[in-house]
Amino acid sequence: MNQYRTLINFGALAGLSAFVAFLIYYLVDSNPLGNVEWITAWIPIVFIYQGTKRWRDEEFKGFINYGKAFAAGLIITVAYALLYGMLSYLFILLVDGGIFEAHLDEIMQGMEQARQFLGDEATDKMMEEVDKMTLFSAITGNAFNKLFGGLLISLVVAGILKKKETPFDQA
């Protein structure tokens, strides 16, 4: 487990950084669960790249295969998504539940605007599903989106950072 400490630390730093952005959005009266969250899409990219690179350099003396690099990115992603999800859930639950209500209102407004494109039946069905949404389901859905995004980022980063050891490197 000690060999994965670097990866978990980078995931935790990514989660904390994303939560700081969440707090900044909250402080400037922007809904941190809304579309503004896309502004911080760079956070997992930076931490997955830097964490995988550091792990490659420290644990494997600068060489790593694609599979290990991909696994490193996934470990960082899981730590990031879990920590961010937990912190945002606790903040909304304990500090300001109005964030979730505002998020639901934004979704409903967006669906009303899309009604002409989607039609009445599809829009009404989607609105019923939004009415069933709970804070927990919204946060777990957000965490799942972060996991999926991190998976895609990890695929790319692993391809960039993989490096085979050659006979010339052993000397």
Question: How is the secondary structure organized here?
Answer:
Elements lengths: L4 H23 L14 H18 L6 H29 L3 H21 L1 H13 L2 H27 L5 H4 L1
Helix pairs in contact: 1-2, 1-3, 2-3, 2-6, 3-6, 4-5
Main pleated sheet: none
> Outline, from the CA principal axes?
elongated
Query: Helical percent range?
Result: over 70%
Number of helices: 7
Please report the distance between the alpha carbons of the first and last residues.
30 Å
Structural class: mainly alpha
Task: Quote the beta fraction.
Answer: under 5%
Which stretches are poorly predicted, pLDDT < 50 over at least 5 residues? none
Succession of helices and strands: HHHHHHH
DSSP summary, beta strand count: 0
Mean pLDDT: 89
Labels describing this entry:
171 residues, mainly alpha
Task: Tell me what the structure shows.
The chain has seven helices and no strands. It has 171 residues and is mostly helical. Helix 4 runs antiparallel to helix 5. The longest helix has 29 residues. The mean pLDDT is 89.
Please sum up the structure shown.
The chain is mostly helical and 171 residues long. The chain is built from seven helices and no strands.
